[in-house]
Amino acid sequence: MILRVRSTRDSMAMHMKRILGLGLMFVLAASGAPKQPKLVVAVIFDQFRYDYLTRFRAEYHAGFDRLLTQGAVFTNARYDHYPTVTAVGHSTYLTGATPAISGIVGNSWYDRTVGKTVTSVSDSGTKLVGSEGQGSSPRRLLVDTIGDELRKSSAGKSRVIGISHKDRAAILPAGHSANAAYWFLDPSDRFVTSDYYMNDLPSWVRDFNGSHPCQAYAGQKWLDHTLPTEVGNLCQAVTDSPFGNDLLERFAERALEAEQLGKHDAIDLLTVSFSSNDAVGHQYGPDSPEAHELCITSDRILGRLLSAIERQVGADGYVLVVSADHGVAPTPEANAALKMPGGRLTGNPVAKAVEAALAKRYGDAKWVVNNGETGLYLNLDTIESKKLDRAEVDRVAAEAALTVPQVFRAYTREQLLIGQIQNDSIGKRVLNGFFAQRSPDVEVLLDPYWITGSSGASHSTPFGYDTHVPVIFFGATIRPGHYDGPIMPNDVAPTLATLLSIETPAGSIGRALAEIFAQ
Fold first, then answer.
1. Mean pLDDT across 26-47
2. Residue 227: predicted pLDDT
3. Which of its termini does the chain have fewer beta carbons within 10 Å around, N or C?
4. Whole-angstrom Cα distance, residue 431 to residue 442?
5. Which range is least confidently modeled, 55-59, 184-188, 359-363, 409-413?
């Protein structure tokens, strides 16, 4: 009996030790777990190649400098979709989805149900708030965002706000259930929204608009450019200069303060998309003094935004992530000076070749109903009236497109439906960008470094200069360092979801970048 009692007591003691040990392990694990921020700020620089960070590194002394020295910097982040354009990049950022899943296949596309081109956020059922005209909404986005998951997990307590110069860049990252999305309407010198979100602008937005924000930049100089003083042309000139980013940052600061972001019972989200880099890049090209100047001023503006965030929630109260929606190709003229390939394709030769080939094969008719951003939409009424096989017509059209010099590849709708593509990164990116109900019947890709248009620079291709972008996480819960392994911007959404202990957005194909979590 005595031995049995002793054995029971020993067993109980050992059991208690295990419980205490497990409790201690739990406490240690909890204390070492990343502290959740009160505020998440997701920044996008529109048209910002990764190499802008390395080419101008010595000239960064503010925001980019802090991120590059104290943040988690991913040096090989590449989009795995096509086309690389604003709406697609912005829809990917906080959904983690590809166009094949999100339905956002371009800035615009031909909508066969209404027989016209629509934009990624156009919505005839909405009206602008703050000005006159049709509004915009995220209804064409088929999946949810980090902001949507925050709102769901907090029972609506989280505040989610998106801002940009462009409607699509304000709306798509913020998501369906955002409290607001604001964009700048150049002709009226004011930030507006849509009645999808609200019926009246908040007083702080009305006050900001009442200050006539563009007029602060009248006559200002940058490089050898001088902004006009007349009101009619001023706002567009502001947007097409470094002052456009400055204006947007001022508005972001007001949003932080007025909406008390980061000071609620739930985690808040602010998305900020700087559009002026894209405007300047298109006009002058990535190797111009103007693009260089935009990068340097973006560094200073980002530094100001970081300071404003830290005034709001403290240095350990937020996580910030910075990326870009796409890169940009060098201008053909800049490439020619270096004996590099490239050129300009003008006059719609692909559409003309396809029309001619289909007319020769099947008879005269209107064969191309829309020449889209990335390819051709064929006339289904004509195909049906002639009792033709749609797949065969698509194939003839693709073969005709390939006869045009500088056409790199052409894919038919049917090839993409069954995944009949080259097994390489280009084919995979085109497939990831294909959504049958919205994409063209024939996707047409030009040779590397070839662009459409008679001047300026452009983007949209699956090549490295358009797909390689920055991804940088920054905050007290983030382990600093340079991470050289390959990732996708699609990884941003699941990383934030893991950090915030919320559900990953439904369409995400990315992974959580757990290697950056400080323990």
1. 74
2. 97
3. N
4. 12
5. 184-188
> In sequence order, what DSSP letters do the residues of 176-215 get, joined into one string?
TT-SEEEEEEGGGTEEEEETTT-SS--HHHHHHHHT-GGG
**H-helix or E-strand containing 50?**
none
Residue where the block lists tokens 């031909």: 110
- Segment 392-398 shows an average pLDDT of 98
Residue 31: partners with Cβ closer than 8 Å, 6 or more residues away: none
Q: Which amino acid is at 172?
A: L
Cα 201 to Cα 131, 171, 181, 293: the distances in Å are: 10, 16, 11, 34
Instruction: Give residue 71's Cα distance to chain centre.
Output: 20
In the block, residue with structure tokens 């294909």: 434
Closest alpha carbon to 188 in 171, 213, 216:
213
**Cα dihedral across residues 261, 263, 264, 266: positive or negative:** positive
DSSP string, 84-134: --HHHHHHHHTT---HHHH---SSEEEETTTTEEEESSEEEEEEEESSSSE
Cis before 83 (ω within 30): yes
Please give the average per-residue pLDDT across 378-385, as a whole number: 97
Reported as a single tens digit per residue, the pLDDT across 126-173 is 999 999 999 999 999 999 999 999 999 999 999 999 999 999 999 999
Cβ atoms of 64 and 299 within 8 Å: the answer is: yes
Mean pLDDT of 94-115: 97
Residue at token pair 């080419």: 55
The whole-number pLDDT of residue 35 equals: 74
Residue 8, classified by CB atoms within 10 Å of its CB into exposed (0-12), middle (13-18) or buried (19+), is exposed
Which pLDDT score is estimated for 34? 58
8 A C-beta contact, residue 107 and residue 166: no
Residue whose pair of structure tokens reads 């049709």 in the numeric block: 134
Please give the structure tokens belonging to residue 100.
Answer: 């094949």
Distance between CA atoms of residues 109 and 480, nearest Å: 40
> Tokens 């020295």 correspond to what residue?
69
pTM to 2 decimal places: 0.92
What average pLDDT is seen over the chain?
A: 93
Sign of torsion, CA 312 315 319 323?
positive
